[in-house]
Amino acid sequence: MSSPPSSLWGSSPGDGRSDGRHSQFTYRHLSQMASYNTSCPLRVVAHIDLDCFYAQAEMVRLGVPEDQPLAVQQWQGLIAVNYPARAYGIGRHCNVTEAKKLCPQLIHQHVATWREGDDKWAYRPDAADHVATDKVSLDPYRLESRRILAVIKEHLPHDLQKVEKAGIDEVFLDLSAHAHAVLLERFPELTSPPPDDDPSALLPMPPLSALEWQADALVDLDDEHTEFDDPDWDDVALLIASEIVRNIRAAIREKLKYTCSAGVARNKLLSKLGSGHNKPNQQTVIRNRAVRHFLSGFKFTKFRNLGGKLGEQLRQAFNTDSVQDLLAVSVEQLKSKFGDDTGVWIYDTLRGIDTSEVNSRTQIKSMLSAKSFRPSINTVEQARKWLQIFAADIFSRLVEEGVLENKRRPKTITLHHRHYAQTRSRQSPIHQGRLLDEETLLSLAKSLLDQIVAEGHVWPCTNLSLSVGGFDQGISRNMGIDGFLLKGEEAQVVKLGSKMLMKEEDAQETQPAEKRRRIDSSGIRQFLTKKEQTPCTGSDGAVMGNNGGETLGSLGSEVSPGAAGNPNGLTAPDEASFSQANHRQTSTTVHLCPRCDSRLESSEALQNHQDWHFAKDLQEQERVTSTFVSQPSTAGNGRPAPAPVKRPGRPKKKERGQSKLNFG
Ligand code: CTP
Ligand code: CA
Ligand code: CA
């Protein structure tokens, strides 16, 4: 394996751009593309994120015209707002009354709900008045999410796909191997063996002087580069990736009517920043020669993993939150303040360097259904009615997942019960011998409830949650920096989790400690866990924290109206119903959001939750600042105007310095 690029900014493996005849990349770099080498300077990664996802799902379902303002309502709050409605100043921070004032013709569709005593979720006109008896169902959106994922996979070659579902409405794609195959096809000269069979020989230059980026929003190049420089293979690889992404987006649009935005760059960090940069319905390409320019305008607190405690410490340490300012800080300084691993990680992140892998881990590994009660419930009968809803909810998702057919079925079922500050849990195995049905789930849940009730002092109960897990023991290797737990810290986290989630004597270890341990990757993980819980205010003023003892979800979480400090019902995870890939079998870890201290059940739930913070921040940033990413429509270093919203079918616009790419 060759060493990573020596250039801090671009992908340049050498001292800069080519000598005119040769590329700056080697034959080895080219072949690294095919094996998804995460340090490969020709690597291409995309992030695709659906625009106002739940809102689009309702528009598609209801056949609402595209320019009709619409928001998705949950009790009195809004959880998704389409772009026509955003133009009226409506956002997730609004409640229905405020939103209607801003835009009287707004359609506010309530999410589907399960209802006490009913065995199927439904869209109900009176749902908003039934917070005590209804539980939100996100099944319609999960279903759409799956259809979208299927279209994405259909449009990638079967043997060359690396797709990571990163949330309900987003995916990362490592397109390196696919783009590599296209490169070889279009430029057969690349298939010749290197001179003297030396893999470190430089490639010939691409036979092109300019590239056709079509409707893509291109980020302006760094100061030392111009659009008149000849493109190198990294540019061509990104162009190919961007063509692939454009086709995928067109297919999603055509087949399912959804618009989405995408970022195309050399890694996950950059592609994710890119997808949020020109929403809606636009893709943004961050060429390697534009990375520094792209990042310099961000506050580092907008980066994943730098939005919370670590970001705050960094800000305090250097008295700035600007990426640009921190570029002057040496890696040694960062190491001395944050430790070696975290110091290097910060140093790299500020420079857009991220070698975390795109993980194909789309199989669901756990499912959870939960509800917080306001008012609290006081009898076994009431609790049992909710267990019936949870069992039906989980079972319908099991059926949808096809887990019954393909023999992937959960091995354990866990019930959490909260009484004041005390959370009790009971877990039992799910017998593998007989057919798993809703009745079985329900009777297991009821017996877990009976065990808890037998302890006494269990009423009033303020929260119940049922989860199933143990679908798959596989733990993916390189999950990116936020997917890991520190070895040394694990004991502490497990202890913390046990204290919060289980009575000591109840804790059932279902896996050997070795298996439960995740790889020690970096000291950064310590910033993702916290001991103390203090609710905090999100950027929109809504209280983001949980209610002191739950491990409920982020996406799809909801709150009862009137919950203290959260009148809009935005985000408090009082109720949840979600599935997780890589959810560990027993709830022995706690993943705390460093931004708002929400406690999440798995690293993926945490990731989803952080993505939400992240997207909100980007959105906020876009609202208040004129963006600096767009077509190269201004001269030199000037800041171009934000790219106009592109709609499918709009005629292509030629960019300065970009002409038709002639392949072959
Ligand atoms: N969501 C939610 N609760 C949160 C965060 C997000 O219910 N705490 C839902 C939103 O309703 C949304 C979907 O998850 O539709 C995806 O979230 P996100 O991508 O952050 O926002 P979008 O609504 O899709 O808007 P954008 O166009 O900015 O991506
Ligand atoms: Ca989205
Ligand atoms: Ca998203």
Automatic annotation (TrEMBL):
This is DNA polymerase eta. It is found in: Mitochondrion; Nucleus. Keywords: DNA damage, DNA repair, Metal-binding, Mitochondrion, Nucleus, Transferase, Zinc, Zinc-finger. GO terms for molecular function: damaged DNA binding; DNA-directed DNA polymerase activity; zinc ion binding. The keyword tRNA processing does not apply. Residues 577-590, 624-636 have a biased composition (Polar residues). One of its GO terms (cellular component) is nucleus. Residues 45-307 form the UmuC domain. GO terms for biological process: DNA repair; error-free translesion synthesis; error-prone translesion synthesis; mitotic sister chromatid cohesion; response to radiation. It comes from the Eukaryota. Residues 1-22, 504-590, 617-664 are annotated as: Disordered. The lineage of its organism: Eukaryota, Fungi, Dikarya, Ascomycota, Pezizomycotina. Residues 586-621 form the UBZ3-type domain. The keyword Metal-binding applies. Residues 1-15 have a biased composition (Low complexity).
